[in-house]
Design a protein that fits this description.
The complex is a heterotrimer of chains A (517), B (155) and C (122).
Chain A: H1 5-19, H2 27-55, E1 58-61, E2 82-85, H3 87-110, H4 117-136, H5 140-158, H6 165-196, H7 201-207, H8 212-228, H9 237-244, H10 250-271, H11 280-302, H12 307-331, H13 336-375, H14 391-404, H15 411-426, H16 428-453, H17 469-487, H18 489-505, H19 507-511
Antiparallel strand pairs in A: 1-2
Helix pairs in contact in A: 1-2, 1-4, 2-3, 2-4, 3-4, 3-10, 3-13, 3-17, 3-18, 4-5, 4-10, 5-6, 5-10, 6-8, 6-9, 8-10, 9-12, 10-12, 10-13, 11-12, 11-16, 12-13, 12-15, 12-16, 13-14, 13-15, 13-17, 13-18, 14-16, 14-17, 15-16, 15-17
Chain B: H1 4-26, H2 35-52, H3 55-63, H4 67-84, H5 121-149
Helix pairs in contact in B: 1-2, 2-5, 4-5
Chain C: H1 2-28, H2 32-54, H3 79-109
Helix pairs in contact in C: 1-2, 2-3
Classes of the chains: A mainly alpha (517), B mainly alpha (155), C mainly alpha (122).
């Protein structure tokens, strides 16, 4: 059964997504079912991570006689749908399944009063399928299909509260951005197919000789994935989407955004990793985009009054750190001395920041959802004195805010420190801006804490109680993860992050299956 | 919308369109087209029926039609056919082809007009996809029709 | 000879025109329905591109049980066609969802003018 893990990773949540609509009118049953399915997928992904870390790259060929038969007799190029899972893919799959589970748990109470919940859970599971497909596939066209699945399910969830016009506005914005981005991805896939007659990433990367058409394809892929991960010139959809989506979906939607980031890395490091053209230029573009993204994000966040919108702008800002970290690594990719000196560490910082950010930003957005759940408003000026009424939410918020501001011993510190140290060696200015951003982040979260939780208790919130237990449980799990990842960063780095970084860096390993190389 | 011309045309055309859709679904593994195309044709026939009737009639007729369960069953059937491949082979493996089961006949070598009893899981998948697509597209058309033409909310 | 080059490149010229038209429609039209149509035009351009790419002159479709001699070694892998079909299917879902959002926006805002649909800002 172990060799079928990649297929089961897709099949189990798909099964869940199609069975949930049958549970119409029995909402608590539908949510229980979704929790069970996401938990099962989480277990599968833990197994998958263990398999990949112990045995190396897993290749799974759909529809073949046996899972590893890449080239049937007489074929010289891979033709079937092929899943190829290396350490970074497994790492992203683990984050996606973990966050879907947390999201489903949180949603159990958070959206209980809404109607159409069986569709909500079906879409949540479909979103999970989309992300898992994107990170597990070894085939460009599958990447496009799953990108679209994630985009459609995500935007339908953004517009889930259809009694609010704003939700539909945010939903159509997200949908248009993702539709245009994925069509451009498809266009560049067409360009590459026309050149080399294949769609397999590993096979293409052995063939690419980088002429003008390939350069256009690289540019289009880079721009579209940067658009979908909320990097700066196209960041305007992020705050709208994150604000309007129900808080239980926020974790999964965050991972969906970072799945595009993963695709960006995959394109830069694997697909175009073997070309002689200096990738340093792309690396510099990525780093500068990252710095711009973090600074513009945080300055926009400072002026917000809507608590979820403020946190969404911080999400943009934190994406900048990841771009910066991996961009620094990409800049020195062709320079072995610098790569081993700080490039590898920089990439580890960037990738470690992905999971750290997913954890603490989900935690923060969930506390914002909890505030909305009890007060019915997201305006900071109308809240106050909630600390005493909601102790668990307050603790969760403090942990999240400390983590995002990079205060030791929380997890944000670990990854941010790696990024400061390494980007300083490339150019001191990059590190300085990153630190200033961090200080501004702290400032804006102090503001949120003061206006929502501190101050005199307000009359109208006298009846407010702590949020229901499933929501508290989801927040506490994430808060504990925040602290654990902060206290033992070395364990995580050694077991998850560095294998992922090496998977990106060691292209030959990625190419060397099935006697292709 | 519902003039005599539309009603008469629908009466003649709709059965033909529905039969043609079913034909395309069933012959998906032999002729151009397949589950999605046939389902879309079938749904367009149903769409013709929807626009040719008054809102109340449409509402009454489609009240009992289990469109959403049909969609789920179609998708689950597709997934189930794909999972059949896990019996010894891989996901999506065509295990029924040449097995002698229904749709499992062996294709004779040489020029032939195409035999329906071949194709293995492909034929089943076409049927399931067709089911899903016709239910999905019909419910989309139905929702837009009731939303824009009717008074009540049916989201 | 010159005419041949134009004939071969004609689909790609159309693709370029459609791409430009689609981006123009998305970027400059104020009506939301027209923006949706712009996305559809883009999709049509990409689909046409894939189909034009998949055409091989003198190629045979790989559907033989007993292939004639001249078809051996001349068969075309139908991947671009498969890609196009998938992309069309996805396009249907995207356009249905976009139109549903447009309907809902019209019910709440009373307008489809994209410059007026701006409650989310800042």
């Amino acid at each position: 059964m172990m060799e079928h893990l990649p297929a089961l990773m897709i099949a189990v949540p798909l099964f869940g997504a199609f069975t949930t609509p049958l549970l119409k009118k029995r909402y608590s049953l539908a949510s229980m079912w979704a929790i069970i399915i996401t938990a099962a997928t989480l277990g599968l992904s833990l197994l998958l991570v263990q398999e990949v870390l112990s045995k190396g790259i897993i290749v799974y060929v759909f529809g073949a006689k046996n899972p590893s038969l890449v080239l049937p007799s007489g074929y010289r190029v891979p033709v079937r749908i092929i899943f190829e899972i290396d350490a970074i893919g497994a790492f992203m799959a683990l984050s996606a399944t973990l966050m879907s589970f947390i999201g489903a748990l949180y949603s159990y109470s958070h959206v209980r009063m809404e109607s159409g919940l069986e569709k909500y859970y079906a879409l949540l599971l479909l979103l999970e399928v989309g992300i898992l497909g994107m990170v597990l596939t070894g085939d460009l066209f599958n990447l496009f299909v799953f990108l679209e699945i994630a985009g459609i399910a995500g935007s339908a969830l953004v517009g889930f509260r259809n009694y609010r016009g704003e939700a539909s506005e945010a939903g159509i914005k997200y949908l248009i951005v993702s539709a245009v981005a994925s069509l451009m991805v498809l266009f560049s896939i067409g360009l590459l197919y026309g050149q080399y007659g294949n769609l397999n990433i590993a096979y293409l990367s052995t063939q690419i000789h980088f002429d003008t058409v390939d350069m256009i394809a690289l540019g289009l892929l880079f721009v579209s994935f940067a658009m979908k991960c909320g990097s700066v010139p196209m960041h305007y959809w992020v705050p709208d989407a994150y604000t309007e989506v129900p808080a239980g979906i926020n974790p999964t939607l965050l991972v969906a955004t970072y799945a595009s980031l993963y695709a960006l890395f995959r394109v830069s490091f694997s697909l175009f990793g073997a070309i002689t053209w200096n990738m340093a230029r792309v690396g510099w573009i990525m780093s500068i985009l990252g710095v711009l993204t973090m600074f513009i994000g945080v300055t926009m966040a400072l002026v917000q009054k809507d608590v979820k919108r403020l946190m969404s702008y911080h999400a943009i800002s934190q994406t900048g750190y990841m771009l910066l970290g991996v961009g620094v690594g990409l800049t020195v990719l062709n320079d072995p001395a610098k790569l081993s000196a700080f490039g590898r560490t920089a990439m580890a910082g960037g990738i470690f920041h992905i999971i750290n950010h997913i954890i603490y930003k989900s935690l923060l957005l969930m506390t914002a959802g909890a505030l909305f759940y009890v007060t019915g408003t997201r305006n900071l000026n109308e809240m106050g004195g909630l600390a005493r009424r909601m102790p668990y939410t307050t603790i969760a918020f403090i942990v999240g805010a400390a983590a995002i501001s990079g205060i030791p011993p929380f997890n944000g510190f670990a990854s941010k420190f790696l990024i400061y140290e390494t980007s300083y060696q490339l150019n001191p200015l990059l590190a300085v801006i990153a630190m200033v951003t961090s200080v501004l982040t702290l400032a804006s979260f102090v503001k949120v804490f003061a206006s929502a939780f501190l101050g005199p208790p307000l009359e109208k919130y006298n009846e407010v109680r702590e949020v229901p237990k499933p929501m508290v449980a989801a927040m506490i799990i994430l808060a504990v993860l925040c602290i654990l990842f902060g206290l033992f960063p070395n364990v995580v780095l050694k077991n998850l992050i560095y294998p992922a970084v090496d998977a990106l860096l060691k292209l030959a390993q990625y190419q060397s299956w099935g006697g292709l190389a | 919308m519902t003039t005599t011309i539309i009603k008469t045309t629908t009466r003649i055309l709709a059965p033909l369109i529905l039969v043609f859709g079913a034909y395309i679904i069933l012959h998906g593994h032999l002729t151009p087209g397949g589950g999605f195309q046939g389902g879309a044709v079938f749904a367009s026939g149903l769409a013709l029926l929807i626009v040719a009737c008054e809102t109340d009639v449409v509402k009454k007729r489609f009240e009992k039609v289990p469109l959403s369960p049909l969609e789920s069953i179609g998708a689950l059937g597709f997934l189930g056919m794909a999972l059949l491949g896990l019996m010894g082979y891989t996901f999506f493996r065509n295990v029924i082809a040449n097995s002698g089961f229904i749709f499992g006949g062996r294709t004779p070598i040489g020029i032939n007009p195409g035999f329906l009893n071949t194709g293995g899981t492909l034929a089943y998948m076409n049927i399931f996809v067709g089911m899903k697509v016709l239910a999905g597209l019909t419910s989309i058309v139905l929702i837009f029709f009731l939303l824009l033409g009717g008074k009540k909310d049916e989201w | 000879m010159n005419g041949d080059i134009i004939a071969i490149n004609f689909p790609f010229i159309v693709v370029a025109l459609l791409l430009a038209l689609g981006f123009y429609t998305i970027g400059f039209k104020r009506n939301l329905i027209k923006v949706v149509i712009g996305v559809e035009i883009l999709e049509g351009a990409v689909n046409l591109f894939l189909i034009a790419l998949g055409y091989v002159k003198g190629g045979y479709a790989p559907i033989y049980t007993l292939a004639p001699k001249k078809a051996v070694g001349n068969m075309v892998l139908p991947t671009p066609q498969a890609l196009t079909l998938t992309s069309i299917v996805i396009g249907v879902a995207v356009s249905a969802l976009m139109l549903a959002f447009a309907v809902n926006i019209y019910r709440h805002y009373g307008t489809l003018d994209v410059t007026k649909i701006r409650r989310l800002r800042g």
